[in-house]
Amino acid sequence: MVAAKEHYYMSPEEYLEWEEKQPLKYEYMDGEVYAMTGGTIPHAAIALNLASMLKNHLRGKGCKILMSDAKVQVSEKGPYHYPDVIVSCDERDKKAMKFIQYPCLIVEVLSPSTEGFDRGKKFRNYRKIETLKEYVLVSAEQKLIEYFRVNDKGIWELYSFAENAELRLTSVDFNCPVEFIYEDVLLIDETENE
Questions:
Q1: For residue 85, which of 51, 119, 125, 43 has the smallest C-alpha distance?
Q2: DSSP string of 71-102, one letter each residue
Q3: Please, how many CA atoms are within 13 Å of residue 150, restricted to the half-sphere of its CB?
Q4: Does residue 129 or residue 192 have the better pLDDT?
Q5: Within 10 Å of residue 30's Cβ, how many Cβ atoms?
Q6: With contact defined as beta carbons under 8 Å apart, do 157 and 151 qualify?
Q7: Which residues partner with 146 through β-bridges?
Q8: What does each C-alpha distance from 52 to 44, 48, 156 come to in angstroms?
Q9: Which residues lie below 8 Å from residue 120, measured CB to CB, with a gap of 6+?
Q10: Is residue 47 left, alpha or beta, with left meaning phi > 0 and alpha meaning psi from -120 to 50?
Q11: What is the DSSP string of the chain?
Q12: Model's pTM, two decimal places?
């Protein structure tokens, strides 16, 4: 999804109340809101493929698997983000209605306009969530997944998975071939070569 900055300054409480009345979704950081606009078909298909597989894998295990219409609260003061896929298996999120606070896994599908933000400031924000164990970045231009996992010393490690590899998400004990995540997806680079 693409974020477009709006020029409003508000408290986290004002943001939560205000956003409920808006026709669009807005992310919130440092007192400012950013409108979330639609993504591409490959972006949506990749997120759906992964969310569907995670939902099937975690069925009956007490986890919430949500997509881009659900927001994550980093702290009571914000920021608030809308990841492409979120998984929380924390008991405290079971009755969540407005946002998830305790995710173990967050996935962002990269788009050219938001890739820098997803890798930079957004990832720095997400790392403040104590329950987060894995952060996954999925390219919509090529079959490539970058997977960040926090180790026992609290250091985030990067692993890359290309087309013929198998992705393994330890926080939810899930593996699948990278190819499955890209099932029925026409990548952006493929359309440029035609």
A1: 51
A2: -EESSTT--EE--SEEEE--GGGTT-SS-BS-
A3: 18
A4: 129
A5: 9
A6: yes
A7: 137, 160
A8: 12, 6, 26
A9: none
A10: alpha
A11: -EEEEE-----HHHHHHHHTT-SSEEEEETTEEEEEE---HHHHHHHHHHHHHHHHHHTTTT-EEEETTS-EESSTT--EE--SEEEE--GGGTT-SS-BS--SEEEEEE-TTTHHHHHTHHHHHHTT-TT--EEEEEESSSSEEEEEEE-TTS-EEEEEEETTSEEEEGGGTEEEEHHHHTTT---HHHHHT-
A12: 0.91
- Nearest-Å Rg of the Cα atoms of the chain is 16
The string of pLDDT tens digits covering residues 42-84 is 999 999 999 999 999 999 999 999 999 999 999 999 999 999 9
Q: In the numeric block, which tokens belong to residue 166?
A: 């198998």
CATH of domain 40-192: 3.90.1570.10
Name the burial class of residue 137, with classes exposed (0-12), middle (13-18) and buried (19+) by CB atoms within 10 angstroms of its CB.
buried
Give the length of the chain.
194
Please give the Cα distance from 79 to 75 (Å, whole number).
Answer: 7
- Picking from 71, 87, 93, 60, the residue whose alpha carbon sits closest to that of residue 24 is 71
Domain boundaries, the chain: 40-192
**pLDDT exceeds cutoff 80 at 148:** yes
Tokens of 37: 């606009």
